[in-house]
Each structure stands twice: as C-alpha cells, then as structure tokens.
C-alpha cells in the first residue's frame, strides 16, 4: 500500500505499468497517479510546455476552453474577481473572462510564478488542463480552496478516466507530463471533502461551489 497524493489514505495500490511508468490507483478517491519517483524533472517538464502554442487569438483554442468558460461564466456576477491557476505560456481563459468585464489574476509555476496572487480571495478560480500535471494535488487544491470566497466557484478541466480497464491504452495517459488522473468519483470525493456543491459537465469539466 502507498499513500494517495489526494485523499492521503494508505489505499493506493499498483494498477499497471505502461510505457515505462508505474501507476497507482486509490480505492478511496479513485485517483490514478504515476509513482512519484518517475516524474519528469522541472527542466524536462518545462521543455514540453514550451512547445505548446496556446494563443488567445486562436478560435479553436478558445472553443476548447469554452467547455469550462461557458458554464462557469453563466454562474458569475458582474465584475467578479478570478484566478487562472496554471495559465501556461499563452494565457487565454483569463482574457476570455476579462472580455466579459471580470478581473483575473494568473499563476503558473513556470510562466507566471508570482505567488502573491494567493494572498487574495476570489469569486472564481479556474484550472484548465492543469490538474493532470499536479504532483501534489491535495496541497494545491487546499491552497486554491483557501483562496476562494464562500459562494465562489472552482472550475476544473481535465479529461476524466474512462475506466480502469481502458486506462493503460488511453491516449490522455500517454503524455509524459500527465501524472495525475481523475474520475467523476474523484470529484465527488473532493466535493464531500470540501463540503462543496458539484456539477460535472461532459467528460472534461467539473465545477465545485464553495458553500
């Protein structure tokens, strides 16, 4: 048994080995994650992200982000204050919300590493295609939750695991920077843990409301 990096239980067991990586599965929160010693080092990780061509003027990228943007924007009051966590080399979601009149701070450990953004309280926090890169999701989600106002929203975009059986051949697993994988059961665990209201939309989007 190993400790789960999300729920911190001692219920993480070997799931499979694929492409040289060993994966653990937690029977409590359903998280799947790469054994910590097998993660890329920061230099290798950043070199992969440097290849991303995210651009706020790319309509296809905007449409992709709209899987979170559309449902979350409908919930926000005018002039809300948000944080985009894991904004990447070409911040775009923050721009989309700013175009609606909201104010948005950004954070990214490689491209916008100013941690003073965590000194504020936010009406909404977004993390798109970031959760799967987290080495310490419990620590990072605890931090984000502490920065969220009561009644605020945490919006997460990450591809949900189809099933344990399909996981070894799943395309989303095969990105070397993807080390942490979630299911709807995982988000239900998070909602219970944080006493939050949960909405799961499609196979990629979850919104938690802080009660």
List the helices and strands and how they pair.
Elements: E1 12-18, E2 21-26, E3 32-34, H1 42-49, H2 59-73, E4 81-85, H3 93-99, E5 103-107, E6 122-128, H4 137-146, E7 148-157, E8 180-181, H5 184-193, E9 196-201, E10 205-210
Parallel strand pairs: 4-5, 4-6, 6-7
Antiparallel strand pairs: 1-2, 2-3, 3-8, 7-10, 9-10
Provide an overview of this structure.
This protein has 211 residues and is α/β, with parallel strands linked by helices. It has a single domain (56-210), classed as Vaccinia Virus protein VP39 (Rossmann fold), CATH 3.40.50. 24% of the residues lie in helices and 27% in strands. It is globular, with a radius of gyration of 17 Å. The termini are far apart.
From the alpha-carbon coordinates, what is the Rg to the nearest angstrom? Answer: 17 Å
Q: What's the CATH architecture name?
A: 3-Layer(aba) Sandwich
Total domains:
1
Q: Output the structural class.
A: alpha/beta
> What would CATH call the homologous superfamily?
Vaccinia Virus protein VP39
H/E topology pattern: EEEHHEHEEHEEHEE
* Share of residues in helices: 10-25%
Number of strands: 10
Can you give the mean pLDDT? Answer: 97
Low-confidence stretches: none
Strand content: 25-35%
Count of helical segments? 5
Q: Oligomerization state of this entry? A: single chain
CATH class categorisation:
Alpha Beta
CATH topology name: Rossmann fold
Distance N to C terminus:
34 Å
Taking the sheet with the most strands, its summary is:
6 strands, mixed
Q: What would the principal axes of the Cα set say about the shape?
A: globular
């Amino acid at each position: 048994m190993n400790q789960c990096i999300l729920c911190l239980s001692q219920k993480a067991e070997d799931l499979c080995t694929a492409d040289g990586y060993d994966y653990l599965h937690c029977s409590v929160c359903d998280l799947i994650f790469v054994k910590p010693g097998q993660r890329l080092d920061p230099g290798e990780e950043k070199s992969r992200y440097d290849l991303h061509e995210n651009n706020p003027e790319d309509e296809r990228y905007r449409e992709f982000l709209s899987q979170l943007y559309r449902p979350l924007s409908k919930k926000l009051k005018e002039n809300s204050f948000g944080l985009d966590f894991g904004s990447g080399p070409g911040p775009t979601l923050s721009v989309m919300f700013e175009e609606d009149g909201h104010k948005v701070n950004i954070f990214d450990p490689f491209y916008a590493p100013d941690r003073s953004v965590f000194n504020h309280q936010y009406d909404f926090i977004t993390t798109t295609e970031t959760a799967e890169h987290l080495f310490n999701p419990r620590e990072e989600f605890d931090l984000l939750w502490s920065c969220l106002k009561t009644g605020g929203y945490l919006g997460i975009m990450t591809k949900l695991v189809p099933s344990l059986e399909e996981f070894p051949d799943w395309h989303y697993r095969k990105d070397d920077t993807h080390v942490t994988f979630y299911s709807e059961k995982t988000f239900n665990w998070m909602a219970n843990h944080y006493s939050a209201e949960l909405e799961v939309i499609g196979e990629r989007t979850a919104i938690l409301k802080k009660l």
